[in-house]
Amino acid sequence: MPFDLQSRLAARRAEHLYRQRPLLESPQGAEVLVDGRRLLNFCSNDYLGLANHPEVVRALQQGAAQWGAGGGASHLVIGHSTPHHQVEEALAEFTGRPRALLFSTGYMANLAAVTALVGQGDTVLEDRLNHASLLDAGLLSGARFSRYLHNDAASLASRLEKATGDTLVVTDGVFSMDGDLADLPTLCAEARKRDAWVMVDDAHGFGTLGASGGGVVEHFGLGLEDVPVLVGTLGKAFGTSGAFVAGSEALIETLIQFARPYIYTTSQSPAVACATLKSLELLRDECWRREHLNRLIARFREGAAQIGLNLMDSPTAIQPLLIGESAEAMRFSALLRERGILVGAIRPPTVPAGSARLRVTLSAAHSEAQLERLLEALAACHAQLEASR
Ligand SMILES: *Cc1c(COP(=O)(O)O)cnc(C)c1O
Questions:
Q1: pLDDT tens for residues 310-357?
Q2: Which of 2, 199, 276, 342 is deepest in the core (most CB within 10 A)?
Q3: Of the listed 53, 75, 84, 236, which one is catalytic?
Q4: Does the active-site annotation cover 176?
Q5: Is 38 in the same domain as 58?
Q6: Considering the domain boundaries, does residue 37 fall inside one?
């Protein structure tokens, strides 16, 4: 039977992999209203609590009043408005790169950068645990595509030896499901030996890492020569939406000329760009959010270790608790929810088989008391699950 969707869906259910969307009935925040219930939110990527910050919201409103609601056209036609241009200039300055180019989503920024830089005859090498958008971009590019072992410079080096044509090494800056940092100093050194370029997608590092929130490259002190292609997204710590690629003048002009996911799409709302200008200012200048977040991360790791939970090797706001089986992760997540705590269960194929986990994300919007409530609930649910084994 063609298009047998019912049996595909039934199989998905049987494997405990069926996805459902929680309905959010409040703005983002430490406390949210979901499916009619108030819950403490430990699964959002709003790491600095800027998504509903009054000044960011006001900038959006004023932006809409001045520039309207819609982008109206693609950037190359008549959709590239003054706020978009100002965001690009501000992001270039913020990242210390000559130029930056604004995109509507991180998924598109990644598709654009990879497909504009490599094609048939070239090589793209990616960390096995890269974000899906980077893996999709590598496949779509038509370049020879190979994945190296997670964060493994030796595995990368052996693939670099066999690479042909222009070679792009692509990695997450902070791995989105594990929370660990790419070992960029070592990976970049390997790439430079072979004249390969490094592209870093730092969706989770911008705003949270580095003294001024400049992400993993600021954390490691890496410049344009080390990381020629730097991607950031605006929907996480920035609290708005969109993404950017930062790099040389020639890189940005190449994307404008050749990147189909840039050319054939409408620009984002200029009002969103106005909001991003404000959130960039708060993210860069108000370092107390990063400091508070770091204290929460340290306290969470200490508390979770005391409970005997299986922490992963993460210094960031992404603090996964490894569970193993999908059904078990779902049960744990459901028990937490009964206690008023929202933590997402992440299952294959998002993570490798047998490594289902609870993905706890911390935010500067959380208070210390809210973090203690999470730890108490984790201890209680953990004990309950152990007792029922
Ligand atoms: C979220 C994310 C993206 C996608 O960004 P969007 O703006 O949400 O499309 C890309 N890369 C990584 C590593 C991400 O975590």
A1: 999 999 999 999 999 999 999 999 999 999 999 999 999 889 999 999
A2: 276
A3: 236
A4: yes
A5: no
A6: yes
